[in-house]
Specification:
about 325 residues, alpha/beta
């Protein structure tokens, strides 16, 4: 678990508090928005820069954001006139912000009060090459009822999914284990990548791949965030029929291929590609969308009988269509 002794007030050791930027991203989060914004106000960490960004919501979200911005004059408010997607909306605030550490905060989630203080303390204790601190999260439903933990006890004194720290490039290729809403990013890490890739439909997998090539990740063994699961969330739309994110996933896998260096990394990418192919088969993805995954797999691994079967299945579906 996290060592609470790291929470020594920085002033007591002659060290200034770093500025932390919270980019609060909203798109039709009105039912959850006040709880999310109140969780920013409840932070025990005092040195915050807050950007409220509304990505052209069509519910009552803009009015709520205006109210909180009026009551908190130091907060910045950006009401985007058209929907530009998470990546571009986030970058709009990020490139204007000043914080040395950044939190990308979706306003259907909730920050626990010590979230920022704990993660800043973890960064203070870490090497300068650590670009990301992430943690455990509570999963909640639309009404705020507890559903479980992201990293669950496995009954053998471990957690599932298993967290990874250090140089985790191969791990982020092989499997999903990071709860995205729990991340705090070092500004230098995100800036070195030019922010999020605005041509993509979602940001986290691409960020993990590009960041972990040059920066270490650190797992903080604490629950810092409540992640809300509901039918309108981005994660709820993934791995469904007509998945809107498959093309982005494929493009990120292509980026990973260009960054991979070792046999272990190529093997990890092969695991990811086969996993994505299986998911595509299950949800009957169009053959043209599946084909680029098969092409990438041919470049990183010898085909197995299952790979041949998937390729044949995709070819037959394409012929039938």
């Amino acid at each position: 678990m996290f060592d609470s002794s790291l929470l020594i007030p920085p002033a007591s050791i002659g060290e200034a508090l770093p500025l932390v930027t919270i980019v609060a991203l909203c798109h039709n989060h009105a039912p959850f928005l006040r709880e999310a914004l109140d969780s920013i106000l409840a932070q025990t960490y005092p040195h915050l820069e807050v950007w409220l960004v509304d990505d052209a919501s069509t519910d009552g979200s803009p009015a709520i954001l205006r109210d909180y911005a009026a009551r908190n004059p130091s907060w910045h408010l950006l009401l985007l006139p058209e929907n530009v997607g998470n990546c571009r909306a986030f970058n709009t605030a990020f490139f204007q912000s000043k914080g040395g550490f950044i939190i990308d905060f979706a306003t259907d989630d909730v920050l626990l009060p010590a979230r920022v203080a704990l993660q800043v303390a973890q960064f203070r204790a870490a090497e300068a090459s650590v670009g990301v601190v992430y943690s455990n999260a509570e999963l909640i439903d639309e009404s705020g009822r507890f559903l479980g933990l992201h990293h669950r006890p496995d009954g053998r004194a471990g957690l599932r999914p298993v967290p990874a720290s250090g140089w985790v490039f191969a791990e982020v290729l092989r499997r999903y284990f990071i709860s995205t809403p729990t991340m705090m990013m070092r500004r230098a890490c995100l800036a070195s990548m030019g922010g999020y890739d605005e041509t993509l439909a979602y940001e986290d997998f691409d960020f993990w791949v590009r960041a972990s090539r040059d920066w270490q990740f650190c797992y903080l063994d604490a629950v810092t965030t409540r992640k809300r699961k509901h039918p309108r969330s981005m994660s709820a739309r993934a791995y469904r029929r007509h998945d809107p994110y498959l093309a982005t996933t494929t493009r990120v896998c292509a980026k990973a291929l260009a960054l991979a260096r070792t046999p272990a990394e190529f093997a990890a990418l092969a695991v990811r590609l086969r996993s994505e192919l299986r998911q595509a088969v299950r949800r009957h993805a169009p053959p043209a969308d599946v084909r680029p995954l098969l092409v990438l797999l041919r470049q990183v691994a010898r085909r197995t009988p299952l790979d041949w079967a998937l390729a044949s299945w995709n070819w037959l579906r394409g012929m039938a269509g």
